[in-house]
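Below sits the subject:
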Amino acid sequence: CRASNSTGVSVKKYNRDGFFIDKNGKLRSFNHKKLSRKRCGSLRGKGWKYGSGFVDGIFPVLSPTAQQILRFVQREVDSNTIWDAFDSLPPTHATWDDLINVSVQLRLNKKWDPIVLMSCVSILLIEAYGQKSLHKKAEFTYLELLDSRCIPTEDTYALLLKAYCMSGLLEKAEAVFREMRKYGLPPSAVVYNSYIDGLLKGGNPQKAVEIFQRMKRDCCQPSTETYTLMINLYGKASKSFMALKLFNEMRSHKCKPNICTYTALVNAFAREGLCEEAEEIFEQLQGAGIEPDVYAYNALMEAYRLISRMHMGCEPDRASYNIMVDAYGRAGLHEGKCSYSLVELSVKHYPA
């Protein structure tokens, strides 16, 4: 094919068809005129440079320089040495193309399954060590994860926070919190929940209240789990009025309570012998379409037992006992010790 330039001299035009290796490793050819511009295709004059081949599912053929860079990066273990070598390269478009192609090739050659498995195992180990208050082992596992160049997620930070809190290491827990912010990872409800849960299990309810208030100041919306944890906190502190206040707050914020939330509130009233309030919350649980479980029934029965023991003149009536006997029967616990005691108690108060 020939064409004339501006001086009228005939110039031979060469076919610019190129070659590439597809995802199956086969050598294929392409025509630059048919290469989609919408997919960022470009030839740039050489067969190993054709734009976003990685996005298009085409594996790039590395230039000789890129092949040398790839071998060097795969062989070298010191990251500082690699960066120093990169700094010595000429700052040209060709160099950037080679570095990008090498990065793509490294990503393609990466064995991701073992890395994902290692990350999952590390997170499980941190959680297990935290449950046993083995904070040093949890910390060592976290540092190993960093040495493996794995980027911590919010779940990793949440479990490490919880491990420190359960061991009473509040300063280290705050350090983890600051580290998250330093790396641009704002604490989410998952992280705050782990923080509060760890503080409660570590015997620091006052600090848990402070973290809950900080959570709201940071405009992080508390979740159902958050409210359940705090309702439990106030229930154990015999502050059922605060537990009810939080319960109403969560509903006003369109945060739907679950069976654990209702059970925690029933427990809060039961601990103070507020039988009528406990029954009211239990009825709300059923009205919400939630099937009560054995823990919910136990919480309600605790209210009845406490009132009977305190002799406050507010004994449960026959209907109350019938509800509980029927509940345990439907739950398949008619032969259980709790159900037997309840029937015995009802016979004592209301003989046939």
Q: What stands out?
A: Strands lie at 2-4, 10-12, 18-21, 27-30. The first strand starts at residue 2 and ends at 4. The longest helix spans residues 112-131.
